[in-house]
Amino acid sequence: MEFRYLGRSGLQISEITYGNWLTHGSQVENDVATQCVRAALDNGITSFDTADVYANGRAEEVLGAALKGERRESLEIFTKVYWPVGPDPKGKNDTGLSRKHIMEGIEGSLRRLGTDYVDLYQAHRYDLFTPLEETMQAFADVVRAGKALYIGVSEWTPDQIRRGHALATELGVSLVSSQPQYSMLWRIIEDEVVPTCEELGLGQIVFSPVAQGTLTGKYRPGEQPPQGSRATDDKGGANMISRWMKDDVLAGVQQLRPIADDLGLTMAQLAVAWVLQNPNVSAAIVGASSPEQVAENAKAAGVRIPPEAMTRIEEALGEVATRDAALVGRANPRRRPV
């Protein structure tokens, strides 16, 4: 495993970070999820990403139980706050980035994770309905209370990042990370988000580097998705991957196979290694449904893709990759989900 600094902070994280988004607490049985976490540790991964909303809190519980007994100082645990968590019906203050929800959110996350603090606490989306000053003051108070060491954001626009960073600086806390979707097929952060973060000292912790499994090459144009794959999952996976299930995209992905073969990589390893070629990327978040997948994903650490191979990748996917910077921030809710 190799390690990178998170932006311009002094925090080092494993460049392959293990995430338990769709799997733990929902799609994968708890014992297998625990085996995946153990496999991550065995392969040198020390950074773990989760969120309170994943599986309605169960993902944090599974991760906390799997890490129990590990030396806490040797781990970097990230979680996020924004979406409603808990029993139905949800309350009117159970979502967003109000002071109330942030303060209650961190307490719930620490309880489920079984830890006194998280290394990184991130705003899971931007809250259009709460003053940014209120949000950043609450995050600063969480840091001052020792319940989080650093703060970050997820899927914020360059302007939102810039304003949040200015307030964090005024409050004397470290806004150090941006967590966007990024892959060979989804490049919308490259034109504006990445330059803004490079200027301000934030590092990217990117999710979906394999485009929900599309870049593994398992899906072929004109063919039905394999049974048991994410594209056939009715618990949320199929919706997440649907944007890639187009013949022109899948045909472009198949052109990556000889490139991966020439480099001695699987297609998944090539996809993860590709996002890590971007110097502003501090880590790629990978998930897995088996310990074997974890071990394979971890092999993308330290891979350097030669320029000629990067050119071939561009030729294969240049026409089907999504690059529109106007799509940044579209995931931020325009109305309250509660």
TrEMBL record:
Database matches in CDD domains: Aldo_ket_red_shaker-like
Coiled-coil boundaries: none
Keywords: NADP, Oxidoreductase
Keyword NADP on entry: yes
Region (Disordered): 216-236
Keyword NADP: yes
Domain NADP-dependent oxidoreductase per the UniProt entry, residue ranges: 15-316
UniProt record similarity statement: Belongs to the shaker potassium channel beta subunit family.
Protein's UniProt name: Aldo/keto reductase family protein
Organism whose genome encodes this protein: Pseudonocardia humida
